[in-house]
Amino acid sequence: MFDPTAGVDGSSAVESSLYNSVQAVLRELNSQSTSHEGMLRWTLHKKVESHPSNTVSLIRVLVKELGKVGRTHCNMFVIPLLHTLSYVVIQSGAIPNTLYQRVYDCLRKLLILPLPYSAVALSNLRSIKMEMTTPGALYQRRVIAEQNLKNEHFTLREKVFVLADPAVFSGPLGAAVRADLQMAGPFTDTLTQEKAVVLHTLQTGLGTACQSSALVQALQALGEHAVQKYFQEVVVAVEQSIEHGAVGHVGYLNRLQHIYRDILTASKGGTAQVDHGSVCSAAMPTPEINFLLWHNEEDLWNALTNFALGSCPNPVTDKEEDKRDSVLSVDSGIEKDLKDLELDDKEQLPARNLATAFTRRPALKSMKPADKLTLMREKMEAYPSSSPPLKEERGLTARVVVMGDDRALGRLTKVYRSIRERESKHLILTKKLNLQLYYIPVTDAAPSLSSPGSPCQDEGKLSLASLLGRVDPWYDSNINSLGAVIPKLAEMHSNHSKPNLFLLDTLSYYLRCGMQPVNLPFYSVKITRSSYNVSSTVEEVFVSRLQADFPEFRQLKEKLLKESSVRRKRKTVQVFGAVVSVSYKKISLSRRFVVRGMAPTTCGVVITAESPTDIAGQNYLTVSFDSMNPRYYTIQTQNISIRTLEQRTFTVCLDKDSRRTYNDVQRIDISPCLDPGYSLQSSGKSKFAVRNEQEPAPSKYGNRVLSLPINTFSGVTL
């Protein structure tokens, strides 16, 4: 047990205070109270950010706590401690090598823990190893990627898109959240960001040999061109040091020392006062947030393609454009013929044909959003000599944060499958873009508890958020708690209070530390509808819930329940619901499927799928039939078909979203949703198959079930 009073020295009081703060954060995981959830972690980070000299003391406390966890096997606290340690190290100044070695040894001992704790420990171990050989690398790479700082040596770029469901974020609440997320951070321009990178890298690398106050003054005195020059030199030094590993550590420090002296000399600041040991704060800037109300499902696709196109070099000049044939004429095939022609072949063509081919460009229509990726592919093919705009490695990361309830995740599921389907045909965006999904649960209504007697009643709209909170307590503490904070923002803005940094800082923390996905399985449903004696089918997907209702019997049941206090005499015939035919494959203990069928009477059906693939192993649906009978039918299956046996139709609502309601339904067929990129043709695997590097290759005789990967802090910890 760590005694905070041991070793009375100048840092004991600070270390004791930090120890108490860490203990308060850990106790929060066991607490049922939601009054301070997330706030204690935020307060601890702000305490270190405003006083960088406390960094070393906090790291000592965290290492001791991690060592204690390893001895007591209390794995619940591993994730909070690891992420706090990682976040502090990234933003810290100079850390003694002896302390770095203690951190490294501590993390190595945690590798014996089960997943996902060992996976998070291994990720942190790699980061610590990089920081030991190249101090300042983590901060520099993170800022360059998030702020899109131009350089030729580290080309990874990130962009954050926050998609807010207008059903929740309408009116003042949407405006308040937009204002808080898009507020100007501590850095206002590229030049200021570059100065911060130079300052932090030199401070971290040189340690006490760096006079921080003198360096700050020198950077402020430099012109824009000089700052950009030293920024590029620092980036080159870091990237070359990472490439050389531990062998290049001494050369890296010498290079930083040379850059540091050049800056002081160039600004004539060599006579500044000596301040050995002090560290000036260079807080990491918050990422740029692109906030938009998610009215149209195509908004996400358009945002991703615009991001990919905006990051592509454009080697096409006006003169070259005049010489090119049509870049969007995918229907005639002319451009393929023209591209393959050599100069000698062109001379043999009639002059009128060439003129006709090259005069089509002014007749082009404006591009549709779906055509943008076609343009990207054609640029890559037309200019092989230049640096290709599309590389096999994904240099762009799009971090998509969905804010809303189960309805928003349902829409995300539909769009995610659409993206996978488009990529299975083109495989353009996936080469360029790494898509990361995040979820902040917020609803416009308080959760309602359903009574046992009414399985079709609404069970609240945050069931998936509750599931994510159960499998990852750190997500529950920091992200689920925002659901109670965000609705208050509109009231705070109406009172003209100061901007609230809590939401923006928490989102930044989530984006930087939430790297372990929880895979939510979703299902495809084929809806057969009847309208004026004409049948039509609709292909849909759902991730949390499908509810089917016979409205006339639902109203009858509600009426009878209201009259339950009045004594009713039973008649010879009493209607319990519509007769439906149900065909499904029952899951047995041996995991074999047995085809079953039945024809119950029901006034509604609720089908839920809320078990992550990480813990279910073999996913299944829970199907509950509601009727006036004393007992209910409940089955578990992966595939089910339900159709009416009478001249009746029913309504289907997907993911509790009234905007995704279908009327006049005769039949529904539900099965696991297959990944279009993995779907196998009769001749074998599709040549457009998309595979995650961390996943094994698909079976030769099977298909891969698609799931929605929502990033959390640990993944599943159950």
Q: How is the topology of this model organized?
A:
Elements: H1 12-30, H2 39-50, H3 55-72, H4 78-91, H5 97-109, H6 117-133, H7 137-147, E1 157-164, H8 172-181, H9 190-206, H10 212-221, H11 224-244, H12 249-266, E2 289-293, H13 298-310, H14 318-323, H15 334-340, H16 343-348, H17 351-358, H18 372-382, E3 396-404, H19 406-426, H20 429-432, E4 433-441, H21 463-471, H22 473-480, H23 482-485, H24 489-494, H25 501-513, E5 516-521, E6 523-531, E7 534-542, E8 545-549, H26 551-562, E9 578-587, E10 593-598, E11 601-602, E12 604-608, H27 613-616, E13 621-626, E14 633-644, E15 650-654, E16 657-672, E17 680-681, E18 684-685, E19 707-712
Parallel strand pairs: 1-2, 1-3, 3-4
Antiparallel strand pairs: 5-19, 6-7, 6-16, 8-12, 8-15, 9-10, 9-11, 9-14, 12-13, 13-14, 14-16, 15-16, 17-18
Helix pairs in contact: 1-3, 2-4, 3-4, 3-5, 4-6, 5-6, 7-9, 9-11, 9-12, 10-12, 11-12, 21-22
Polypeptide structure, described:
The chain has 718 residues and is an alpha+beta fold. Among the domains are: 1-135, Alpha Horseshoe (Serine Threonine Protein Phosphatase 5, Tetratricopeptide repeat); 190-266, no CATH class; 321-360 and 367-384, no CATH class; 523-564 and 573-672, Sandwich (Tumour Suppressor Smad4), CATH 2.60.200. The chain is built from 27 helices and 19 strands. The strands form 4 sheets. Strands 8-12-13-14-16-15 form a 6-stranded antiparallel beta barrel. Strands 2-1-3-4 form a 4-stranded parallel beta sheet, with helices on both faces. Helix 2 (39-50) runs parallel beside helix 4 (78-91) and helix 21 packs across helix 22 (473-480). The radius of gyration is 30 Å and the shape is elongated.
